[in-house]
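Need fresh eyes. Consider my entry:
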Amino acid sequence: MNVIFESERILYVQPSFDLIPDYLEMVNDIEHVARFIGERREPYTEEEERRYMQSKLDQKATMFSMLGKGTRQFIGNIEFMNRKGDEAEWGIVMTYKMQDKGYGTEALKRSVEYGFGELGLRRIYLAVYADNPRAIHVYEKCGFQEYDRNDVDVFMETMKPDSSASVSV
């Protein structure tokens, strides 16, 4: 696996066809995972997941699979989508068994650092279902602020700190 960056407990690697069984287990968990990432309610096939993965690789998508540092156990995926200039939309999906262990917060904090530092982003934004208060709380805890909402989604953003405002001692 090609490690791109890491955090305390997570390795962020290039997506891999070797992880397709893990991806399928995650996205086909309708009750705990899929209902928070889209409208689809029927399972993906291995062929569909292969085509999806190939399209992401062909697009050179800024997508990373997360693995536990010590165990190499699959945690989930993060992605910087819709990159335009110095802005990108951020998304995460995690396996149910890896939720509630702090990985989401750790991944958000580290990937925001990566986005601002390595990708040169100034603004990172996201959409979260309004009926997902746990996720909204994590985003707020990590510095995201709501800028809009509708009946379905809450739209949040964080901006790169203004380095010119910092004071040297």
User: Anything to note?
Assistant: The radius of gyration is 16 Å. The chain has one domain: 3-122.
